[in-house]
Amino acid sequence: MSGFDVHRAGARRSRFRLFLLAAGTALLLAAGMLIAQNLGVFTRDAVAGDHMLVSGQAVPDPDSEKPVSLVAAEHAMFTGPATRPDVRRMDVTVRRGQTFASVLSKAGSNRTDAARAIAALDSLYPANLLRAGQALTLYFETGDEPSKTRLAGLSFRPDPERTLTVSRNARGHFHAREATTNLTREVVRVTGEVSSSLYLSTIELGATDRVVFELANILGFAVDFRTVQPGDPFDVVFERFVNGRGETVRTGDIFYVMFDGRGAPLEYFRYETEDGEAGYYTAEGESARRLLMRMPINGARISSSFGMRFHPVLARNRPHNGTDFAAPRGTPIMATGAGIVERANRFGSFGNYIRIRHANGYQTAYAHLRGFARGIRSGVRVRQGQIIGYVGTTGRSTGPHLHYEVHLNGRPTNPMSLNLPTGRHLTRDELTLFTPARDKLIGIRDQAPLALKSPSAGAAVSARFRSDA
Ligand SMILES: [Zn+2]
């Protein structure tokens, strides 16, 4: 587990120091109630050993970072292609006669959460100001089980200049904040060598958690993050939106990525094809995506790999046709590629079992599941990265783990050593459009200021901890 996971404690400490710096600046700039409250939360969480990003705005407004379940996301970030967190967004319009409380409970919030969210909002926006026609965006944490759905927050624009956001922090408290809407877009660059981890190195140079999350998504098909070494060069160019106070309110797209670790150097350019599909391509127009992702779960440890092994239950040597991932019961399992579910049911010693048929003669199988995600049954089409089930220990199994198999033309193959076909290669016609777009991005990259040295960089550090927190 080199590269990303091993230095997490150091990352926490270092981020905590950065945070103290940022908090000091923030205190000088504004000693508002909200900041003071957040500070208390941050400090306690950090001392308790939780990651400090647990606190604060988990559910930002449209002008802020996308909702991300940061604990899970950050833990998983570089152990595999990251999954989308389970936050459900719901857009509603207030109707005549409705109140905040009735809108929230109609949408599925319990009364206590609704009351707390409304109370948090009161100083910025008393509930009796709400009028019919007001659009609201509600966020619900869906957890890993439908019954655990709960209100995570809401956001809305009472007028064109203001966006108000209420969000739940890790301890269940709701906080409200106000965001300005006059944003300046800038393209910045984060480049250097991996120090302790790619995650920490990019963050220290001014990337946000969301940028790193996206970065992991882009590189995750080609890079085994356990092999990343200190000294590996990286280069990332992305856009961000800065408000009048010089704070990064949100980050946008990553335009360019370079990473030179083990294996051939990787370089990807963002490109939107004429059919409107945005993706990342090598300089030659080959998609960064692969037919299958490397791993079906985030943050897991490989507990038994492909090949001969001593079977713990049968107590004898037998071939192991798959890879076992040790992970806590209930950990979401993703379909590693798009395809059609061939079976999703009980299957002998495999327990609860899913098999998916993909393009090019590939099949994947997932065994010992605790249960299936909603709607997963034979004949259903699934997307790459879609959650299909949860880790369990059904069938012949000694503890919670996922047994994962990849078959090519009916024969088991080692998923960790597959040289998988890419998702897409730009055609000759597409390349005539791609090539100048790529060269333009190279120019943008070469002119982009470093994220910490751009005109707005002074406030960016403290802003990062407010918007990402
Ligand atoms: Zn196994």
Structural description of this entry:
The protein is an alpha+beta fold and about 475 residues long. It has 3 domains: about 10-180, Nuclear Transport Factor 2, Chain: A; about 185-290 and about 425-460, Nuclear Transport Factor 2, Chain: A (Roll), CATH 3.10.450.350; about 300-415, Glucose Permease (Domain IIA). It has 9 helices and 23 strands. It has helices at about 10-30, 35-45, 70-75, 100-105, 110-120, 200-205, 210-220, 430-445, 455-465, and strands at about 85-95, 135-140, 150-160, 160-170, 175-180, 185-195, 235-240, 250-260, 265-270, 280, 300-305, 305-310, 315-320, 325, 330-335, 340-345, 350-355, 360-370, 370, 380, 385-390, 400-410, 410-415. Strands 11, 14, 16, 17, 18, 20, 22 and 23 form an 8-stranded antiparallel sheet that branches. A 5-stranded antiparallel sheet has the order 1-2-3-4-5, covered by helices on one side. α1 runs antiparallel to α2 (about 35-45), α1 (about 10-30) packs across α9 and α4 (about 100-105) packs across α5. Mean pLDDT is about 75; it is low at about 1-15, about 20-85 and about 460-469. It binds zinc ion. Zinc ion binds near residues 304 and 403. Zinc ion binds near residues 320, 322, 324 and 403.
What tags apply to this protein structure?
469 residues; alpha+beta; Nuclear Transport Factor 2, Chain: A; Glucose Permease (Domain IIA); 23 strands; 24% helix; globular; disordered N terminus; disordered C terminus; binds zinc ion
